[in-house]
Amino acid sequence: MEVTNGDGVGHSDMSRKVIDEENSAVVIPETAHQISSDSWFQVGFVLTTGINSAYVLGYSGTIMVPLGWIPGVIGLIIATAISLYANSLVAKLHEFGGRRHIRYRDLAGFIYGRKAYSITWALQYVNLFMINTGYIILAGSALKAIYVLFSDDHVMKLPYFIAISGFVCALFGISIPHLSALRLWLGVSTVLSLIYIVVAFVLSVKDGIEAPARDYSIPGTTTSKIFTTIGASANLVFAFNTGMLPEIQATIKQPVVSNMMKALYFQFTAGVLPMYAVTFIGYWAYGASTSTYLLSSVNGPVWVKALANISAFLQTVIALHIFASPMYEYLDTKFGIKGSPLAIRNLSFRIGVRGGYLTINTLVAALLPFLGDFMSLTGAISTFPLTFILANHMYLKARHNKLTSLQKLWHWLNVCFFGLMSIAAAVSALRLIAVDSKTYSVFADI
Question: Any idea of the CA torsion for 274, 140, 58, 365, to the nearest 10 degrees?
Answer without folding.
Answer: -120
